[in-house]
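A further point concerns the way the authors explain their paired sequence and structure data. The central task, working out the structure tokens from the amino acid sequence alone, is never made concrete. I therefore recommend that a typical entry be quoted early in the introduction. An entry of this sort, consisting of the sequence and the corresponding backbone structure tokens, reads as follows:
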Amino acid sequence: MNLATALLAEIKARGLDELFSTEEAISRQTIQQILELLRSFQTKSEPSPTPQDQLRLACVYYLSAQTVSKEDTEALEKELTKAGVEEWELTSFRYLRKMKDVMKMSVPGAATGGTATPLGGGVSEGWGRGWGVLGNKLTDRLKEGGLDNLLSGVKNFLPSSKLLPVTRITEALMDPSSATSTSLTETDDFLFLDPRARATPASGPAGSRAGAAAGAGPEGEQKARRMTFQDGMVFVVGGAGYAEYGNLGEWASKSSRRVSYGGTEILDPSTFLDVLGKLGAI
């Protein structure tokens, strides 16, 4: 009980529920809303997110938005500096800016304007259901202990039912019949090295749903027909994360599949920012 009380008190003090709610709807946020939120933290005593919390929020927004002007980027850096983010910590944000500029040059049409697009994808009951059970049990126990006032100050601190990108890709490769059309499209260009899978010539428009389901590519390319798999191994070249691990595990359990997850190293949020900062300093 003491651990749960301390956890919820920290969530409330740092405003993590508000930050999480903003991140969940990041594709609908404008730069002005993000700036106003950062400024609001400076004018009130609680909630008071740490400078690193606010830096992570800015990074998530910057990666989710298709276009952010130079002036808006400078305004973000200014507010982060006011929030207490050190100059050396800002190198992580600047590294993301540099990488996004490189991506714009390498991806056709990426430099064109448009509304912010989310990084997440389809919705699944598995991820939210596991956390929902935990949340209900935790809430009941805390109410029994007379901590209703503490709970009333904390909102939406459990994740919604959403598949993360790694899980969506895994689902499209292992269980294509359950995957969304968006996930299938994202994996159309993947190379299938399966001797059991027979190559299928492309037929009809490249963007047709039937062609995508069969793995057919444009201009008569030979692509392997999609198959279902019960066992899989997901390895992230670079930093893997606990959130991805949990999300993938929830999906595997729900879909009755066996999936192993690993990476070059497992990074927590703070360490991830440190790695970005070191890359930016090179």
Q: What stands out?
A: Residues 125-144 form the longest helix (20 residues). The mean pLDDT is 75.
